[in-house]
Design a protein that fits this description.
Elements (H helix, E strand, L loop, with lengths): L35 H6 L2 E16 L2 E14 H10 L10 E10 L11 H22 L3 E12 L5 E13 L2 E4 L5 E4 L2 E14 L2 E10 L4 E7 L5 E7 L4 H13 L3
Antiparallel strand pairs: 1-2, 2-3, 3-9, 4-5, 5-8, 6-7, 8-9, 10-11
Length: 257
C-alpha cells in the first residue's frame, strides 16, 4: 500500500435518494472551514476534495435536498517519519483527517411542517458512520467496531455528538537482506487504530469531521538466526505517540466551522 492509498477514513457520505426536485448544485456548497494553521504546523497535506448530493427526501410537495463538500488530509510528516524508520518499506499514512459541510435546501431553520430536523440530522449521522466505516474497510482496516460515544466541545461554541471506533491496521512485516542468501525478518503484526467521528449543527448547515490515528506504538525486538554462531537482534521502534495524535485529531475536529 503506497502513501496515497490510505486516504481518509470517512471521506464522502452515502446517498439516500428519494424522488423530488433538486434545489442545490453540488458546486454551490462551500468547503468547510478547517484549521489551516494547525494542519500546516502538524505536517498535514490535503489529498482530496469532492462535492455530492447526499440526501433527497420528499415531504408532500416539498423536496429537501442535502449536498456535501468534503476535504481530506493525511499526516504526511508522520508518514515520512515511519517510511524513514522502516527503510522505505512502510509508506502508509497512519493518521488521516476529514471535514464535511452539508447544506440543506430549504435550510434547517426553514423546514416545512412535518419535516423533522432531528430526523434529518440522525440520518446524516447514520450515513456518515456507514460510509466512514466503509472507507476504513476500503483502505485495508479490519475489525472495525464501535468503542463508545460522547460529545466534544467545538471552538465555535457548539457541542458535537461523537462516535468512537476501533480498528486494526495489518502491518505486513518487513525484510532486510543481510547476505546474498540471508535476511532479517520482522513478522506481521496488527497496529491498533482509533477513530473519531463528530456531527453537529452550525448555523443553517451540518458539519461532520473526524479522523483515524495509531492507538499504540509499534515496538518489537526480534532475533534472527543467520547461522549456528550468529544471531542478529533487531529493535524496531516506529516512535508512534498515540496520546499526542488523539489530542491533535480532537483539536482539528474542534477547529472546523
Amino acid at each position: 500500500m503506497n502513501r496515497r492509498d490510505y486516504l481518509l477514513t470517512g471521506a464522502s457520505l452515502g446517498t439516500a435518494g428519494l424522488a423530488g426536485c433538486s434545489f442545490l448544485a453540488a458546486a454551490a456548497t462551500p468547503a468547510p472551514n478547517v484549521p489551516e494553521q494547525r494542519l500546516d504546523d502538524g505536517g498535514w497535506t490535503r489529498t482530496n476534495q469532492a462535492s455530492e448530493t447526499v440526501l433527497e427526501r420528499s415531504y408532500g410537495p416539498v423536496t429537501i435536498e442535502a449536498v456535501s463538500n468534503t476535504v481530506q488530509y493525511v499526516d504526511e510528516q508522520l508518514q515520512e517519519r515511519v517510511t524513514s524508520r522502516t527503510l522505505d518499506q512502510v509508506q502508509t499514512a497512519l493518521s488521516v483527517f476529514f471535514a464535511t459541510r452539508v447544506d440543506f435546501s430549504p435550510n434547517l431553520d426553514n423546514l416545512p411542517a412535518g419535516a423533522g430536523r432531528a430526523e434529518l440530522l440522525s440520518q446524516v449521522q447514520s450515513n456518515a458512520r456507514e460510509t466512514f466505516e466503509q472507507q476504513m474497510r476500503n483502505q485495508g482496516l479490519t475489525d472495525i467496531e464501535k468503542s463508545g460515544e460522547g460529545t466534544i466541545d467545538i471552538d465555535t461554541g457548539e457541542t458535537a455528538e461523537t462516535i468512537r471506533l476501533s480498528a486494526a491496521y495489518p502491518f505486513q512485516g518487513i525484510s532486510f537482506d543481510v547476505t546474498d542468501d540471508k535476511s532479517v525478518e520482522i513478522p506481521p503484526a496488527d497496529i491498533d487504530i482509533s477513530a473519531l467521528l463528530a456531527v453537529w449543527h452550525h448555523g443553517d448547515y451540518v458539519l461532520i469531521s473526524g479522523g483515524a490515528y495509531p492507538a499504540q506504538n509499534f515496538d518489537q525486538v526480534v532475533e534472527n538466526s543467520l547461522s549456528e554462531g550468529i544471531t542478529v537482534t533487531v529493535d524496531v521502534d516506529l516512535g508512534l505517540e498515540p496520546e499526542a495524535y488523539r489530542t491533535e485529531i480532537r483539536g482539528l475536529v474542534a477547529g472546523v466551522q
